[in-house]
Design a protein that fits this description.
The structure holds 4 protein chains of 4 kinds. In chain A, helix 16 packs parallel to helix 20. Chain A is mainly alpha-helical. Chain A is globular, with a radius of gyration of 22 Å. The two termini of chain A are about 30 Å apart. Helix content of chain A is about 75%, strand content about 0%. By secondary structure, chain B is an all-alpha fold. Chain B has one domain. The longest helix of chain B is centred in the C-terminal third of the chain and has 25 residues. Chain C is mainly α. Chain C has one domain: Helix Hairpins (Orthogonal Bundle), CATH 1.10.287. Chain C is about 70% helix and about 0% strand. The radius of gyration of chain C is 22 Å and the shape is elongated. Chain D is mainly α. Chain D is about 75% helix and about 5% strand. In chain D, helix 2 packs antiparallel against helix 3 and helix 10 runs parallel beside helix 12. The chains are: A mainly alpha, B mainly alpha, C mainly alpha, D mainly alpha. Chains B and C meet through helix 1, helix 2 and helix 3 of B and helix 2, helix 3 and helix 4 of C.
């Protein structure tokens, strides 16, 4: 059964996305229930796959029945089963949340939006599930293309941001493809498992080095790692809120997954650590990413833009976890892929709900939001605390493992960067919390907001928005409390055995 | 594979590429890009990649140029650089 | 050294083309020029893949037999080019044309909004309107 | 040592957390029901904690594991005598504070009462969690929750001053949290365990330079909440909080959690033996002494009553740390028992300050002339607690100071005896004028000359705490067996170290 799951998880959203225009042609309103219903399938499939992996170990699915070195293989182990669950779960949540905000922001473009939405999810799932280096490129481009288009339909300034993203994203994809080409020259294979077998004999070849360099740069561009992140803030910030809450958490996480996959599965860890000093470079770049993202975020008055810069810093976290190149650090990185995806989704969903209800993203206009939208703001607060690393929310535990990793690697500065970043996050998020929960600091705000002096009425986000937000916020707490369970049952197998 | 022919084609490709990004008239630039694609097809055919060449001729040089021309006709033709 | 350069000349051409594309993407201000650069960049990459498959003295990978079951002679692999990179490039071409399409659509959106395609002018307009 | 596995520690923590959410759900409309949750939770928590005291006194420990993350890395409760002592202090005073709070917020008709009681209950929940935690990780988890739970209380007034105090509070405590996170991660990396062990567990796991650095980081981390100088700055600012909060913050939960952390580090992570070998105990004692003296002088200069009390708190907390840092049996006894004694006395003082604020809206020492005639019960309790803090028998403060002085002698460090003496003099200097003025000076014009007390909800708790501090002075082992718990804790530490 799990074999079929592996195929269904791609095929169902792909075909359904093509059916969206057909359905939308008849009845526009049916698109939303259709997309939500369709996205339940990948979630079930990924849970089934995870279950199979946990009980019987890793397995592979041969597309069209062709044997691996030639045909495309979906190789599933603990790592991608884990990421698949994250991707499919979050995309379902965002889809549920999208109903009202799409009606408001994109009323004319509902049908193309949902078509592209499903295509994007297909691409993301495909990147994660495939075991073939070239197939990964194809899915990467499916995801990127739908991303470009989805961003371009955003607000003022979105097309130009999307265009920049297209240019830089294409460079990234081409670099990745060049990397694949050089690997093919050296090995004659495109299958990841096959490559992993062949490569150790060729580690001192210059061709492999070039391939590795191209991979690293290509994925760093796609994942928005400093200093290749320049496209990211504008693109994610100007996108419609339903889009940014899907791509901001997932695209970066999937790129991080690809990085782990390439550096520790295709290449042996000792190549990535000993022969090429790539991790020293990546680690220091992440330190810059963390500080730069944090400082830029401090300068923003627009909450979505602030979150986008926080995202740049969060990418740095994961890459630091990868760069310390030890078991506990990598555990932290994989855990943070999940935690950060959940936290970021929750924050972006909250911002979407606030934008829908109040029409503003300016932080200083958030006054009395705690009275107007108590549940939304409670979810925001919980997630914000998690971002600051307050236990028992999940952010604390990924930070714990990441710091353990840096200590084990003896990288004190990296550890300091992680710690400073929680403080920066505290400043960032408490600023928002103060604005939302407390009376204004300056009386000047009181009259320019034009508010009534009477009782502030509750004006909570619609049910379709509130449910995913509350689920994600609860997830932040539960993932924290059960992080030990998640690590012992899934992540410790996902970390390459050679550590 | 005849290396003289190969070299000439390579030269044409290079010239077309440089011209395409330097011509100020965008329509001309787009046409030159079509020519570039076409020379690329020839190069590939000559290198034995017939299928790629066919695809590029129809999709790259054909559809691509059409799309470009459509876009240019909907926007401005002159460029500052 | 010269030998080395000449013997791998199509690899050199691909590098040069790629740099031209990269220059156009970064250095040019006109957005259509950037897009042209992107196209050059992508086809340079395809040229690289095609070059991978080339073997001295080999021919197009099409069997001259009479269909299935009638192959009389043993297929000598050395006689044919490696077809796999070619096949991959079919996908890559489609991807690149799709990217171009999306980019052109975006360009038209940009033109409708700002009435220009020069990056510096757009930035100026955006700055003036305070967005 | 016998270990008993029981879920009672968990319930002791959870009961107020559950109550917190019930409070939130009940909301502003049903005030009486909401307050009844607080009272019920406080009583339930106290009874659960108290029910475990006899077991602990038999020399057993109670253990409960919540979750295991990794071997050696788990959230776990383990109650030993020291933790029990803190647990009893916190849970018993919560009952009184709850009643007092109700009187206070209703007397002033405060805004956002639901948020206030919610945060209060969360605070207590995490304080008990801190008291019962078995290892540094659990400690850190509850310590951070406490940090966050206190924040809404500090900014309760939502005035500009309050928000600034809140920011300062967060800046200090969150930075401390980060330092702690790093230090604890490093300890886990070095030793593979984080469990508190009487007499320390870290010895021999690293070079002395590394150990000294870790010690400094841990003390910095916990010292922030304990108001150890120079990290005390947030504490006087946080005085803008409502008085019951200050009482709880400064007598029971937050600062005591910091002190408790310092003592855990000194006695249960590093241990007397190791600190002697490293030679940092003396530095620690000097830092504490510095804090004692300077805080005493700063208190003299404050006219705002609550700020004066805040500096007195800093002074007394440093005294507790000094007791632990001297590493002798008597000084430890003195330090640990002072945690309890100081809690009862200081909460009385804050309760009195709050009663004055509610009844006559006076916050400054200079306004208190003759107030004793109007509010004899309040000022009487104030006098008792102030005399006790100065270390005059028969109040409980005398017992702790006696042991501390003995400890200084045992450690052959006469200088600390002088420090303690000076501190006692300073206590007298900044408390006695208040007592004198309020009872013997001519009343100011706006003071009612006849008996006119604050609401009984407020007066009764403060009278009870004042009486208790006398009782503990005469019979240190009364009611809650503080003295037995202390000597048991000291025995455990010295038995190993």
């Amino acid at each position: 059964m799990a074999e079929q799951f592996a195929a269904l998880i791609i095929v169902v959203p792909l075909i359904s996305s093509l059916l969206v225009p057909v359905i939308g042609w008849g009845q526009k309103k049916l698109c939303y229930p259709w997309v939500v219903a369709v996205l339940v399938v990948p979630l079930i499939c990924s849970l089934g796959i995870l279950n199979t992996v946990l009980t019987t170990g890793k397995f592979s699915y041969r597309l069209g029945g062709w044997a691996p070195p030639w045909g495309i293989e979906y190789a599933i182990d603990h790592l991608n089963a884990f990421v698949l669950v994250i991707v499919s779960f979050i995309s379902l949540m965002v889809a549920i949340h999208s109903k009202k905000s799409v009606e408001k922001e994109l009323s004319e473009k509902t049908v193309p939006f949902y078509t592209l939405f499903l295509l994007l999810v297909t691409g993301l799932l495909g990147i994660v599930i495939t075991g073939d280096a070239f197939n990964l490129f194809v899915f990467l481009e499916i995801a990127s293309l739908s991303c470009y288009a989805l961003i371009a339909i955003g607000e003022e300034g979105a097309p130009i941001a999307a265009f920049n993203y297209i240019i830089i994203g294409t460079i990234g994809a081409c670099f990745y493809l060049l990397g694949v080409g050089y690997l093919y020259i050296a090995t004659g294979s495109l299958n990841m498992a096959d490559l992993a077998n062949i490569l150790p004999d060729l580690y001192h070849s210059k061709v492999i080095l070039v391939a590795f360099a191209f991979f690293t740069v290509g994925i760093a561009i796609k994942g928005g790692l400093f200093p290749l992140h320049t496209w990211l803030p504008d693109a994610y910030c100007t996108a419609p809120s339903a889009v940014s809450s899907l791509i901001a958490p997932l695209m970066t996480k999937v790129a991080a997954y690809v990085m782990i996959r390439l550096m520790f599965t295709v290449f042996q860890p000792h190549f990535s650590v000993e022969i090429v000093p790539v991790f020293a470079i990546l680690g220091w770049l992440s330190v810059f990413a963390i500080f730069w993202g944090g400082i830029k975020a401090l300068a923003q008055t627009d909450i979505k833009r602030m979150l986008v810069y926080v995202l740049v810093a969060e990418v740095g976290y994961i890459v630091i976890g990868v760069s310390v190149a030890n078991r506990v650090g990598l555990t932290g990185a994989i855990l943070h892929i999940m935690n950060d995806a959940v936290m970021m989704t929750c924050l972006f969903l909250v911002v979407g709900a606030i934008l829908y209800k109040t029409g503003t993203r300016e932080i200083h206009q958030f006054r009395h939001l705690n009275k107007k939208m108590p549940f939304t703001m409670a979810a925001f607060t919980i997630t914000a605390l998690s971002m600051c690393g307050i236990p028992p929310a999940c952010g604390f535990f990924s930070k714990w493992y990441l710091i353990q990793g840096t200590i084990e690697a003896g990288q004190w500065v990296w550890a300091a960067a992680l710690l400073c970043s929680s403080l920066i996050n505290a400043v960032l998020f408490f600023r928002v919390i103060e604005c939302a929960y407390l009376k204004p600091m300056e009386p000047a705000y009181a009259h320019n907001a034009g508010e009534t002096h009477g009782e502030i009425l509750r004006d909570e986000a619609p049910f379709t928005m509130l449910v995913p937000i509350v689920i994600m916020a609860a997830g932040v707490i539960f993932l924290g409390i059960f992080s030990g369970k998640i690590i012992s049952s899934v992540i410790q197998f996902a970390v390459p055995a050679s550590f | 594979m005849i290396w003289q022919l190969d070299l000439i084609l390579c030269l044409f490709v290079l010239i077309c590429a440089i011209a395409a990004i330097n011509v100020k008239d965008l329509l001309a630039a787009v046409i030159i890009l079509g020519a570039y694609s076409f020379f690329m097809c020839l190069l590939w055919t000559e290198m034995g990649a017939v299928d790629v060449a066919f695809t590029e001729a129809s999709v790259g040089a054909g559809v691509g140029t059409v799309l470009f021309i459509a876009a240019v006709s909907k926007t401005k033709r002159r460029s500052k650089d | 050294m010269l030998d080395y350069i000449i013997s791998k000349y199509n690899f050199w051409i691909y590098v040069v083309l790629m740099m031209i594309g990269l220059y156009a993407m970064i250095g040019k201000k006109n957005l259509i020029k950037k897009l042209i650069g992107m196209n050059i960049f992508q086809s340079a990459m395809i040229l690289f893949y095609v070059s991978i498959g080339v073997k001295a003295g080999a021919t197009v990978p099409i069997l001259s037999g009479h269909g299935h079951g009638h192959v009389h002679e043993v297929i000598e692999v050395a006689k044919y080019l490696n077809p796999l990179p070619h096949v991959l490039m079919l996908t890559a071409i489609v991807v690149s044309i799709a990217t171009t399409g999306v980019a052109l659509a975006t360009l038209i959106l940009i033109y409708r909004r700002y009435n220009t395609l020069e990056e510096d002018e757009i930035l100026k307009i955006r700055k003036d309107t305070g967005v | 040592m016998d270990v008993i596995y029981s879920s009672r520690p968990l319930w002791a923590v959870l009961v107020s957390m559950i109550a917190a959410f019930l409070i939130l759900a009940t909301g502003e409309k049903n005030r009486n029901i909401r307050e009844s949750w607080t009272i019920m939770a406080a009583l339930a928590k106290f009874l659960i904690v108290l029910s475990m005291v006899p077991v602990i006194l038999q020399g057993k420990v109670i253990e409960y594991t919540i979750v295991t993350f990794y071997p050696g890395l788990l959230l776990q409760f383990r109650i030993d005598a020291f933790g029990m002592l803190f647990g009893v202090i916190a849970s018993s005073l919560w009952i009184l504070t709850s009643f007092y709070s109700i009187g206070y917020v209703r007397g002033l008709n405060e805004h956002a009462q639901t948020r206030y009681f919610f945060a209060f209950a969360m605070c207590l929940s995490s304080t008990i969690g801190i008291a019962f935690s078995a290892n540094l990780l659990t400690f850190l988890v509850f310590y951070e929750i406490l940090t966050i739970a206190t924040y809404p209380l500090v900014i309760h007034s939502e005035s500009k001053e309050g928000i600034m105090a809140g920011r300062k509070y967060l800046a200090y405590t969150l930075t401390a949290g980060c330092v702690l996170l790093f230090a604890i991660a490093a300890i886990y990396y070095m030793t593979g365990t984080l469990d508190f062990k009487a007499g320390g567990f870290i010895a021999g796991s690293g070079s002395s330079a590394v150990l000294i650095m870790l010690f400094a980081m841990l003390i910095m981390g916990f010292g922030v909440k304990a108001g150890l100088m120079p990290m005390h700055e947030w504490l006087p600012s946080a005085m803008v909080a409502p008085t019951p909060v200050s009482a709880l913050l400064h007598a029971v939960a937050v600062v005591k959690a910091g002190v408790f952390g310092c003592l855990r580090v000194i006695l249960y992570v590093f241990g007397p033996g190791l600190l002697h070998d490293l030679g940092i105990w003396l530095i620690m004692a000097y830092i504490a002494s510095f804090t004692i003296i300077v805080a005493g002088f700063l208190a003299l200069g404050q006219d705002h009553l609550k700020r004066r009390l805040a500096f007195s708190t800093i002074n007394n907390l440093a005294m507790i740390i000094l007791g632990a840092a001297l590493l002798t049996k008597s000084s430890m006894t003195g330090g640990i028992i002072h945690m309890a004694n100081h809690a009862f006395m200081k909460i009385t003082l804050f309760f009195c300050a709050g009663a004055l604020h509610v009844k006559v809206h006076k916050d400054y020492v200079s306004q208190l002339d003759g107030i004793g005639r109007q509010m004899p019960l309040t000022m009487g309790a104030f006098a008792i607690a102030a005399i006790g803090l100065s270390g005059i028998p028969p109040m409980s403060g005398f017992i702790s100071k006696w042991f501390l002085c003995l400890g200084a002698l045992e450690a052959n460090q006469i200088i600390f005896l002088f420090v303690l003496m000076t501190s006692a003099m300073l206590d007298v200097a900044f408390f006695f004028p208040i007592i004198y003025n309020s009872f013997f000076k001519k009343p100011l014009d706006d003071v009612t000359p006849h008996f006119d007390e604050a609401p009984m909800f407020m007066v009764i708790p403060l009278v009870i705490t004042a009486l208790l501090s006398i009782v503990f002075g005469i019979v240190p082992d009364a009611f809650f067996r503080f003295f037995s718990l202390t000597s048991l804790a000291v025995q455990n530490i010295m038995g190993v170290g």
